[in-house]
Write a structure and sequence with these properties.
Layout (H helix, E strand, L loop, with lengths): L9 H12 L5 E4 L9 H13 L6 E3 L13 E4 H10 L3 H6 L2 H4 L7 E3 L16 H14 L8 H10 L1 H6 L19
Parallel strand pairs: 2-4
Antiparallel strand pairs: 1-3, 2-3
Helix pairs in contact: 1-3
Length: 187
């Protein structure tokens, strides 16, 4: 299904989409459109972990140490957390980025950290700039013909073998979200 809404109020758009398309859903999975290399295995793992711990958490993501590449994270939260955020979030930032209100401990929701066995936070796979599009396109053009169901591990292996591709957008600075202006970690 396709759902359209306000470009500025993404939180309202998401609330309306969930209400229209999955009103009985108890769990919401959020991935963003500027992240075309989301790994379904990571989504499945995150959703499974959240469902196993849903009595303890209202929200979960992989973090807080940002071990996934920028552009591959997944957020899972309860339908009620989304409704609460929609009803209570007032700042432009909270409404544009959907989950900051949910993640704010002052709002009383329970946030969980999903474990993951991966460490590649310095890789950029989000598509926000022309250089990002060029790098991600090169990855897809190389991997898709070999295996249309390639994984994040395949992407990371490819980038290790082809550092010139990772260098295409290596100087792009993330300006929003958890990866905003984070310096590269020491190896």
């Amino acid at each position: 299904a396709v759902f359209r809404g306000s470009q500025a109020d993404v939180l309202a758009r998401m609330e309306m989409a969930v209400s229209a398309c999955a009103p009985e859903s108890g769990v919401v999975v959020r991935v963003t459109s500027d992240c075309p290399l989301i790994d379904p295995d990571i989504v499945d793992s995150q959703v499974g972990w959240f469902l196993d711990h849903r009595d303890r958490y209202d929200y979960a993501t992989i973090g807080p140490d940002l071990r996934l590449p920028c552009g591959t994270s997944v957020e899972v939260f309860t339908r009620q957390a989304l409704a609460d955020a929609h009803a209570n979030a007032v700042s432009v930032h909270d409404r544009e980025h959907v989950t900051p209100w949910i993640k704010d401990p002052e709002n009383g929701l329970r946030n969980g950290i999903t474990p993951i066995d991966l460490d590649a936070p310095d890789v950029r796979l989000s598509v926000d700039e022309a250089a990002d599009f060029e790098a991600v396109s090169a990855i897809i053009e190389a991997l898709y013909p070999l295996n249309p169901e390639f994984t994040l591990h395949d992407v990371l292996g490819f980038l290790t073998a082809h550092p010139e591709i990772a260098a295409i957008n290596g100087n792009v600075v993330q300006t929003t979200g958890p990866y905003a202006a984070k310096p590269a970690r020491s190896k």
